[in-house]
Amino acid sequence: MPIKPENRARYPGNWKAIVAAVRERSGNRCEGSPMWPDCRAVNGEPHPETGSRVVLTTAHLDHVPENCDLANLRHWCQRCHLVYDAKHHAQSSAATRRQRANTMEMF
């Protein structure tokens, strides 16, 4: 997933080298997630289940960009990454909506 501009400073300067290490470990394939542990979708190829072109991304298991320990990182296809992050995304969206609602109440 692309790094949002407001989060870019949370990633280390050697992020590209870290991603390269994760890519090498994965063999440029999805490393499988808790939901689909056997997923091995190949980067740039059609996903064996969805048919969409696979774009591997590097996921933080703990959702903390500063924690770049290789044990905390996984190379995942869109399906594995989005499903793993679904609860976290829902919580973040709810917090953003609450923050916006509170800001609007001030006016």
In short:
The chain is mainly alpha-helical and 107 residues long.
Write a structural description.
The protein has 2 helices and 2 strands. The chain has 107 residues and is mainly alpha-helical. It has one domain. The longest helix is centred in the C-terminal third of the chain and has 28 residues. The protein is globular. The N and C termini lie far apart (35 Å). The relative contact order is 0.17. The mean pLDDT is 90.
Portion of residues within helices: 25-40%
So what's the overall shape?
Answer: globular
How large is the radius of gyration?
16 Å
Structural class determined from secondary elements: mainly alpha
SSE string, helices as H and strands as E: HEEH
How many domains make up the coordinates? 1
Mean pLDDT: 90
Whole-Å distance between the termini? 35 Å
Give the strand tally: 2
Please outline the major beta sheet.
2 strands, antiparallel
The share of residues in extended strands comes to 5-15%
Uncertain stretches:
none
Number of helices: 2
How is the largest sheet built, in terms of strand order?
Answer: 1-2
Per-chain topology:
Elements: H1 15-26, E1 57-60, E2 73-76, H2 78-105
Antiparallel strand pairs: 1-2
Features:
37% helix, 7% strand, 107 residues, single chain, mainly alpha, 2 strands
